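Figure 3 (text version): structure tokens given as input.
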């Protein structure tokens, strides 16, 4: 059984891409869009994306790896990937759990992230990795 967002079925292996199509991803989504959320950290609130949780082994760059650009900030742990041609953020490797990607839901082909309705926001301003050990 497929999960559905806005009338569009989420395939068990779904395609995703940046705006210009230079970067294309294949994403295994057997449980649909998992844990969609926004983040209010300094970078994410500027990007405005809704991201879903995807284990590292379930996301593959199918084309355009040479166009991906990496941006890191603060602790230099998270790895934010975007297309060097159109600038769209496609995914990032999380610093709280580096075994997961945050997939930009808007990059899923045929999916409108606004069809998700209300999406919770993570407290990225007070991220646990920014706290001093105590």
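Below: residues designed for each position.
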């Amino acid at each position: 059984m497929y999960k559905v967002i806005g009338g569009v079925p989420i395939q068990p292996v779904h395609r995703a891409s940046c705006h210009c199509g230079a970067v294309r991803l294949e994403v295994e989504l057997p449980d649909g869009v998992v844990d969609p959320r926004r983040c209010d950290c300094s970078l994410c609130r500027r990007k405005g994306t809704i991201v879903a949780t995807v284990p590292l082994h379930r996301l593959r760059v199918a084309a355009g790896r040479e166009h991906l650009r990496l941006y890191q900030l603060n602790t230099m742990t998270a790895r934010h990937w975007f297309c060097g041609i159109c600038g769209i953020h496609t995914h990032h490797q999380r610093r709280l759990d580096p075994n997961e990607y945050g997939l930009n839901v808007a990059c899923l082909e045929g999916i409108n992230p606004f069809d998700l309705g209300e999406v919770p926001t993570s407290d990225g301003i007070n991220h646990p990795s920014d706290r001093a050990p105590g």
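Helices lie at 44-47.
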